[in-house]
Specification:
The protein is an alpha+beta fold. The protein has a single domain, classed as TolB, C-terminal domain (Neuraminidase, 6 Propeller), CATH 2.120.10.30. The chain is built from 9 helices and 27 strands. The protein has helices at about 1-10, 10-25, 50-55, 120-125, 135-140, 215-220, 315-320, 325-330, 335-340; strands spanning about 65-70, 80, 90, 95-100, 110-115, 145-150, 155-160, 165-170, 175, 175-180, 180, 185, 190-195, 200-205, 225-230, 235-245, 250-255, 260-265, 270-275, 285-290, 290-300, 305-310, 350-355, 360-365, 375-380, 385-390, 395-400. The strands form 7 sheets. Strands 2-3-4-5-9 form a 5-stranded mixed β-sheet, with no helix packed on it. The protein has a 4-stranded antiparallel β-sheet with strand order 1-27-26-25, with no helix packed on it. A 4-stranded antiparallel β-sheet has the order 6-7-8-10, with no helix packed on it.
Length: about 400
């Protein structure tokens, strides 16, 4: 009787308990993660203070001195390529096409598509292609991400988020699927690739749980079901090279192809996988990063450009180390954009040049988002850095060296 009276004297306590129970269980699926098996885990990430203190700053924000090109002509051009004749750039777009630039007189033309399901009416939404309006049709239209030309044949290999690994000839057209499943399970989120001199294609499958539309949940949950895969053109089979990776993303072979780099976006780092030598088949850390890496690309000197959405924050560090807090916080009935902002998830672009040992050679950033708020790839070609982005409707360039 005394206990019942105590509860009645504290009605706000009862309301709090009920509200907390509703948040944790989210029975009406009204939170940003409603209806998902959202089970956050602790990430394997280097300490915030250790990384940020060691990272050099670009006090001049030199990346912001670049130029926007092809505004509202390309939509979400994540990966950029140049063919064997130096023509381009080529870009994979959010509307499902791979396009190429044919000069000022011709402009951009459709070079390839990845599925017979593609149609102009359904898939081409112009500037809206990089918004949620495209998400409902992405799985039908395709979403080309990583692009690479075979330097021997001129064929273009494509990692598409929904249609796996594909290839199209030098003249373009309908791409041919190479790897869509492994061990009878679908490749859910093919992301980037590179081509070995023996013909093997190394590519990432970012998650076995979430597809590209739900990529943000991979980061929030910290789940590590991603894989590094290898397609063997001789046997036309796909093999698992590494698994249990946290958002594996960009892929890049070294100049001598003795090792391969891949980025782990969730863990803010670049990893090195040895293909040859005494360390063959082993993995080691290449570099911890101040933010979330996407693609990594080689320049003519054998150095590596990495695109980073920056930067980590102290509040994010708390969430990383306390999965239960993420489980409660992201079940609040508040739109994701507001939840993200409240914990400091405001991003800007950073590109960094590293040598083979992971030493930092140069850092350029754009803190004010003048030319790029979100960067997916940086390519050094024709005396410039070319910046691709999965989120915006333009490309950015900056003369380099400055």
């Amino acid at each position: 009787m005394e206990r019942k009276t105590t509860l009645l004297l504290h009605p706000y306590l009862i309301l709090f308990i009920v509200a907390l129970a509703l948040i944790i269980t989210d029975p009406f699926d009204i939170s940003p993660v409603g209806g998902k098996e959202f089970t956050p885990v602790k990430n394997d990430i280097a300490p915030y203070k250790e990384v940020m203190q060691a990272w050099p700053a670009d006090n001049l924000s030199r990346l912001g001195q670049g130029s926007l090109v092809f505004e509202n002509e390309v939509f979400g051009p994540e990966s950029l390529e140049f063919d064997l004749q130096g023509r381009g750039p080529y870009a994979g777009l959010a509307d499902g096409r791979v396009v190429r630039y044919m000069g000022d007189k011709v402009g951009w033309e459709t070079f390839a598509i990845v599925t017979h399901s593609w149609s102009k009416k359904l898939c081409m939404k112009g500037n809206d292609s990089t918004t949620h309006k495209q998400w409902k049709v992405e799985e039908i239209c395709g979403r080309p991400l990583g692009l690479r030309f075979d330097k021997e044949t001129g064929d273009l290999y494509i990692a598409d988020a929904y249609y796996g690994l594909l290839v199209v000839g030098p003249e373009g057209g309908m791409a041919t699927p190479l790897a869509t499943h492994i061990d009878e399970e679908p490749i859910l989120f093919a992301n980037d690739l590179d081509i070995h001199k023996n013909g093997s294609i190394f590519f990432t499958d970012t998650s076995k749980k979430y597809d590209r539309v739900e990529h943000f949940l991979i980061l929030l949950e910290g789940e590590a079901t991603g894989r590094l895969l290898r397609f063997d053109p001789q046997t036309k089979t796909t093999h698992v090279v590494l698994e249990g990776l946290a958002f594996p993303n960009g892929v890049q072979l070294s100049q001598d192809q003795s090792f391969l780099l891949y980025t782990e976006t969730t863990n803010c780092r670049i990893m090195k996988y040895w293909l040859e030598g005494p360390k063959k088949d082993t993995v080691e850390l290449m570099a911890n990063l101040p933010g979330y890496p996407d693609n990594v690309r080689l320049n003519d000197k054998g150095e590596f450009w990495v695109a980073i959405d920056c930067c980590r924050t102290k509040s994010q560090e708390i969430f990383v180390n306390n999965p239960w807090m993420r489980s409660v916080y992201f079940r609040l009935p508040i739109p994701m954009r507001y939840l993200a902002r409240s914990v400091g998830m405001k991003t800007y672009s950073v590109v960094s040049l590293l040598n083979e040992e992971g030493e930092i050679l140069d850092v350029l950033d754009d803190k004010k988002g003048v030319v790029m708020k979100l960067v997916s790839e940086v390519r050094e070609a024709h005396g410039k850095l070319w910046l691709g982005t999965v989120a915006h409707n333009h490309i950015a360039t900056i003369n380099y060296p400055l």
